[in-house]
């Protein structure tokens, strides 16, 4: 009972630092509970893209859990830093470390119960509204219904218990290692002037440079994911080293320059900044990394969501495309019948009876060979392989498609590509002399993940020669493409055509002669809404998490600096500086330290933009103007939020300084 009263009184007495800790833990409970509500919903398994969406939410849950553990340890460290004197005093007054350990254990239980209860209560209330937002963003079907199960509460409570048990063990270990003198000195331990570490500083700058270089030089979207992962690790590592060591090394360098250092303002600012960067380098680096994560998440997810219709049209120049590896006699009459049944008016209707879609090829100079699965894996790992797609049609089909007549010999070809143009093109034993096409109707080249070539040859005999002698596994087929207006039920028409193509493939048995394919912008729109909406929702959750974490770190930093600057405030006035001069000096240092992480985060984002845009190409997004607009707006909004946090926490900072000084 004694320990319970003591623990309760400690929590209330230390509310300036304890309540933000409890708030952060409640927020962590809400985040994890929300992810479980979405992930453990039964409707999640019944959606068309269930596996992809579940994988996305599973990855999101893992990120949130890792973030929760790291952030909990970080906030717990700030809390304990300002309680060392209190624990040292208890030790001096007669409580041994075992008794203090019991008190900390009771505090941990009380904090666990308060944060878990508050988090689950708030999470249960608001998860319904967030669930409806997710359903609206994604267009998830009627199977995806809101439900709360015992498993969701149990898993959240279990994970939260693991966090608090880990924090208690960390606190207990710290208590056992410390002696009463160290505890009483509290946060004043280690106030010696920091040393310059140029070797580590150079390593940090090199890490940042390599990370920036990887982002700026990436070319293939297929290898961007691996490269982005390495670039992130290098930039995070470099940011921490630069904040902790390079800033101090630079200040020490300036201090050793008498012409710079021995000036009134420079003398005070450089000396003050040395100690600020020593004590807050880790916190400032964390603020910078979290701010970068917010900006990257906003620019990518919001940009992807805003440009999803544009991306769809880039990937699908037609409302519907279907075809077979044989003639169109098997599909054209049935398609016409279905259009009449569902009152569909074709606005544009193209039938390519002589059409070859080659499998993905490896380009070596002017020669194109069929690729393998290993080539794809090597490309994803960053191998210097030039994978390309290629389609071939006859001059007659091209004329029907574009309205332009071209004359070719058997050894000539017209080629349209967004990649580097060629003078000649080799497919097996066949070599074509190439003439470049400046444009191509309904091109999807820019939306393709890899380079794409559209080749126009003389006639069907040339196509047959390519199929027979190129040593590439392909055949001549038919492709039908149309844009249409639906007076009837558009969705039912698309579903009917899809079922027809599925039946063709099912009836083909083990042969591949009747292999048919089908793609529709309507189906892709639904699939993209689910994926992109899910990404946006998780992006919002991540951004909110990182913003709250940034705000709390800033809050703790301001409290720490408030107590430390109160002493500096007094010393500066004793050596002859006026109250106004001291306040101006401290304000200038606070502003420099406060906004440096934000500026560095914006620099990180600008260097990351090329690789982010390459990753967005995977979803067909290549609207650079829209990306720039979304990124600029994201920077503006986040900077405004950051400034508001600065204003609010600065009030607390100056209250502490003035109160301690008075």
Automatic annotation (TrEMBL):
Topology with regard to the membrane? Multi-pass membrane protein
What sections of the protein cross the membrane? 21-39, 59-79, 99-132, 152-175, 196-216, 228-254, 283-306, 531-556, 590-612, 624-647
Keywords attached to this Swiss-Prot or TrEMBL record, sorted alphabetically, are:
Cell membrane, Membrane, Transmembrane, Transmembrane helix, Transport
Please give the superkingdom of this protein's source: Bacteria
Record's subcellular location: Cell membrane
According to the entry, every stretch annotated as the ABC3 transporter permease C-terminal domain falls at 60-180, 541-652
Pfam entry (one): FtsX
Q: Which family does it belong to?
A: Belongs to the ABC-4 integral membrane protein family.
* Xref: PANTHER family: ABC TRANSPORTER PERMEASE, ABC TRANSPORTER PERMEASE-RELATED-RELATED
The name on file for this protein is ABC3 transporter permease C-terminal domain-containing protein
The opening ranks of the lineage are: Bacteria, Bacillati, Bacillota, Bacilli, Lactobacillales
